[in-house]
Amino acid sequence: MKKDFKAAYLKAQAELEMLYEISNAMHATLNLEEILYTILTAVTSHVGLSFNRAMLFFVNEKEKRLEGKMGIGPDSAEDASAVWSHIEKHRMGLDELIETRSQFEHLKKSQLNKTVRSIRIPISEASGVIALTAMEGMPFIINTEESKQKINNEMSKILNLENFVTVPLKARDKVIGVIVADNLFTKKPITNDDIHMLTTFANQAGMAIENSRLYERTLVLSNSDSLTGLWHHGYFQYLLGQEIEYASLRKQSFSILMIDIDDFKKFNDTNGHQAGDAMLRSISSILKKISKRIDIVARYGGEEFVILLPATKKQEAIVLAERLRKSVEENKNLNGITISLGVASFPEDSEEKETLISHADKALYKAKRTGKNKVCT
After folding, report:
1. Domains in the chain, ordered, with CATH?
2. Which of 303, 329, 351, 352 is flagged as catalytic?
């Protein structure tokens, strides 16, 4: 009896220490992508919960569906063997796995991650057990023929699910997502202890995700221009500094576009400030719509805007600038308003922030001075 009690005590102590370590890792950042990566690394690592694969889905309340966000795990048995051998050989702990971001790099080419990110599941009983987990806010284990009747067959084929467990992610007693985990390659049985640990962990993970979302909403509000909803001048300066560091490290190019609305003062004086504000919002909308998702669009001040184009060489930036210019010129709702644009590129024009902005500014001034409604470098 004493032996059993001691074994149970040591096991509980080890589990608490592991959860403490995972919790610290999750709370080391407020970046949502890094938190999701940390969560799924903890679920799949040998020093964590030791599942072969883990997939995470978020609840989209507006669309009433679950959306795949991230999947971590090998794509094949050979891949699994190589990954686990490397981790064991180098005796990598959870902190090392997260810091080296080996799996984070793997995500870029992971078929599992691509598949998970493409999945949309309506939240209804007909959608199977993953949706049911979100609806009922409770875990499910699928490891018997009877329980497999709850699986949506299509989803089972897409994710190659056999025996697996689903647990809800909760924050403030509200389900915000679902974690799906399995042992596809080792075929290790999923026990009640596994489900208990995963559920306990999921409750911590839900709060970490919610904190990140609150932080990001606060970040957006505090660094956005209230009129246009774009990033403001100060935050753009910060992001530009970050991009210079990133591009320098990876020997990459990027470009910036400086944009000015032609004859805006005249328009404002003729039509009034309300019409001027509406014009600024319309131009902002066009800039956002035509720019790529990764591009950073900001209001630089007054009627001036700036766009940071990561991994974009000068010639590509000129093509986008011309598209923007043409879109504004041809927009019938803008009553003939046009824009002028200046282009500068890193490292071609400069490797220094202030000088790079100065080059874009001079190019913009050249466009204004030589007739307006044009793109200059």
Report:
1. 2-216 (3.30.450.40), 233-376 (3.30.70.270)
2. 303
